[in-house]
Every structure is written in C-alpha cells, then in structure tokens.
C-alpha cells in the first residue's frame, strides 16, 4: 500500500496538537512561585483536565484543582516558573481557567528563558531564574476569560528551558500547557544508541490518520505507559483501510531496534503492524519492519539489520486499535550529528 502524503500546510492542525513540553510525565515541574496560598502551584502541570467538587472546603477555603494565590492588597503580580520537561521551541501556550469563575486573573503574560544563559549546563535554582534579566516575552499581557481554555500562539523560534506565567494581578489558573517541539542538547547523542523517536530527543509526530481516543504524541513519551489512556488509540474502522502515524526522527539516522508496545491494550490492540522509513520528505518509503503480527498487552522488540539512513518513520497498524509506545533505537549519521552541533553552537533551534 502506498503511504498517504502528509497534510498540506493549510490544513495542518492547531498548535495544541503538538506535545505539551511542560507535562510532569516528561519531567516538567514548577520550580518557583511567589505565592500559592489557596491552591498548590504544581497542579498547573497535572495531566488530566481540572476537576471541581462543590462544597469541598479546607482550612484555606474551597479546594481547587489548580493554582490560586491570595487576594492582593497592594500593587504587584503573581508568578510561577515552569521547567520544561523537554526543552525546545514553543509554538503556543494554553492558560486554562476551568472552574475559576470569580477568582481568575483578568490578564496574563508569559516569558521564557534558556537556563544556559545563566549558568553552564543550565543547572540553576528557581530563585536564580526569578532574579534573571534574560527573560524573553513570548505572550504579551493579554486578557483572559474565566472557566475556559485561553490559547495563545507563540512566534518565537529560540530554544527555551523554562517559562514564566504571570497573573495580573492575582487569581487562579487550573492548567498551563506549553506546546512545542523538543530540542535536546546534541552532545548527549554521542554516547551510544538512543531513542530517535522520543519527544525529549527531538522526535515529532508529523501526520496521523486518526486520534479519536488519544493523541499519537503519547507514543513518544518517556517511560512505560501506566494505563491504556497513556497510549494512542484510534476509533474502530468500518472500511478496508488501516490507521497510521508518521514521526520525524531526531535527525538523519540508522535504526537498529524497533519497539512496538501494546501494554494495557487487551481487546483493542492492532492485529499486526509495519514500520517504514524514508530519507528526506521527498524520499521513497522503504521497509524497516515487515508486516508482523502483534499480541495484546505485550512489549515487542525487533532487531533490525538495515544499514540505510532515514529521517522519518511511518508506523502502520492493521486495521486499527491502540499502541502504548513506539521506539526506534539507533544512532545519528556523522553528518547529522555535526549539523545539530553546529546549529546548537550558533544558537539555532
């Protein structure tokens, strides 16, 4: 079967279809805040949507599933600094004020920074980040509505490691999403085989046939899935076709091991799958893993004897179903590694 071409630029999905670089599951964390008296700031990065249970009062008032500061009685703002689990280029953010109706901030702004500007290796404390003058505004002070998801497109092209959410002047935010593309430090690629498709290594879903139940970005998350909901699942097909996903790899590379993990997919795992690759957007697709039967709730690993470079991979599942993780282990080609290092040294992302 000939693979379907990627969607044209005009029909590409909104930035919210890109991975959330701040997710706790990726290693994101809030490293500093000036106030979270009413509701803990770490709630901002929780994976599930915010919940609300009426009349659940604690010592500090109504319990909110979000970040809420005290009422300001003097001029100023409230802020939270988020370490991105996967540093990278930010394409947009979502400030979600779900369930905050009379206590949401009227305005917010967002800034970003690369911690390497403060200290070599980027190992800096939250207090050092808060005191830095190197913050770049990526969302100007903007009005937000209560009890809704407020999306803001970001046009910056730099690589960032942290973002700072500012509420003007105070209030509550349920969730903070930072959508973009992971850009790792390429020096870590020199030390053996690694997962070329992982979000944290620069892998990115470029096209997908179906994401009815859950996002294909879940396929590229770190670690093992803990539930079926942490994988990619399609709706049931009623035609003769099959579902598929395309992934851009960390760089031009050679794959030596494929992992197809159907963990937690018991009655809805695909019956079989193929993996193909191509070198360049206009390259011809070639076989990496022939059509292979899959078992439910199983981690499948296949050694690949293929000395052929590729920049993109395509996973086809037959006919539909769910997959927990998709791994492609290998190494970058020498020219790809050199290019990434040159880009890094020039400050390009």
How is this structure best described in words?
The chain has 349 residues and is mostly beta strands. The chain has two domains: 16-182, Galactose-binding domain-like (Jelly Rolls); 186-335, Galactose-binding domain-like (Jelly Rolls). It contains two helices and 21 strands. It has helices spanning 126-131, 334-345; strands at 29-33, 57-58, 61-62, 67-68, 78-96, 107-113, 136-143, 149-153, 160-168, 172-173, 175-182, 194-195, 204-208, 232-233, 243-261, 272-278, 286-293, 299-303, 310-318, 322-323, 325-332. Strands 12, 13, 15, 16, 17, 18, 19 and 21 form an eight-stranded antiparallel beta sheet that branches. Strands 1, 5, 6, 7, 8, 9 and 11 form a seven-stranded antiparallel beta sheet that branches. 44% of the residues are buried.
Q: What would the keywords be for this entry?
A:
about 5% helix; about 350 residues; seven-stranded antiparallel sheet; disordered N terminus; single chain; Galactose-bd-like_sf; Allantoicase; mainly beta; globular; hydrolase; eight-stranded antiparallel sheet; Jelly Rolls; Allantoicase_dom; 2 domains; 2 helices
Q: Report Rg.
A: 21 Å
- Overall morphology: globular
Largest sheet: 8 strands, antiparallel
End-to-end distance: 35 Å
Task: Tell me the fraction of residues in β-strands, as a range.
Answer: 35-45%
Superfamily at the CATH H level of the largest domain?
A: Galactose-binding domain-like
Global structural class = mainly beta
Give the second-level CATH assignment, the architecture of the largest domain: Sandwich
Task: Let me know the number of strands.
Answer: 21
Helix count equals: 2
What is the element string, with H for helices and E for strands?
Answer: EEEEEEHEEEEEEEEEEEEEEEH
In CATH terms, what is the fold-level topology of the largest domain? Answer: Jelly Rolls
Percent of residues in helices: under 10%
Low-confidence segments: 1-13
How many domains, as an integer?
2
What is the top-level CATH class of the largest domain? Answer: Mainly Beta
Average pLDDT number: 92
């Amino acid at each position: 079967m000939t693979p379907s071409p990627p969607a044209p630029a005009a029909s590409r999905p909104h930035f919210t279809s890109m991975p959330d670089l701040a997710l706790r599951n990726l290693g994101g964390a809030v490293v500093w805040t000036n106030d979270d008296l009413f509701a803990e700031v770490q709630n901002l990065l929780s994976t599930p949507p915010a919940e609300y249970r009426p009349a659940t009062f604690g010592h500090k008032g109504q319990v909110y599933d979000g970040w809420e500061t005290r009422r300001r009685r003097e001029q100023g703002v409230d802020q939270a600094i988020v370490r991105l689990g996967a540093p990278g280029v930010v394409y947009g953010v979502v400030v979600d004020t779900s369930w905050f109706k009379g206590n949401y901030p009227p305005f917010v702004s967002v800034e970003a920074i690369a911690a390497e500007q403060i200290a070599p290796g980027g190992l800096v404390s939250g207090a050092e980040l808060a005191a830095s003058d190197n913050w770049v505004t990526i969302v100007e002070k903007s009005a937000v509505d209560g009890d809704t998801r407020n999306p803001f497109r970001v046009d910056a092209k730099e690589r960032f490691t942290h973002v700072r959410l500012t509420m003007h002047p105070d209030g509550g935010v349920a969730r903070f999403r930072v959508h973009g593309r992971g850009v790792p430090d390429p020096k870590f690629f020199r030390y053996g085989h690694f997962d070329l498709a992982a979000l944290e290594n620069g892998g990115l879903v470029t096209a997908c046939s179906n994401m009815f139940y859950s996002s294909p970005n879940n396929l590229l998350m770190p670690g093992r899935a803990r539930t079926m909901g942490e994988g990619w699942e399609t709706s049931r097909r009623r035609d003769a076709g099959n579902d598929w996903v395309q992934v851009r790899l960390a760089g031009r590379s050679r794959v030596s091991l494929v992992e197809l993990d159907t963990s937690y997919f018991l009655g809805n795992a695909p019956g079989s799958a193929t993996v193909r690759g191509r070198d360049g957007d206009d390259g011809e697709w070639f076989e990496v893993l022939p059509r292979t039967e899959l078992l439910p709730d199983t981690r499948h690993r296949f050694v690949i004897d293929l000395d052929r470079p590729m920049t993109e991979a395509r996973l086809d599942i037959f006919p539909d179903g769910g997959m927990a993780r998709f791994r492609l282990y290998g190494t970058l080609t020498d020219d790809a590694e050199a290019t990434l290092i040159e880009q890094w040294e020039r400050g390009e992302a």
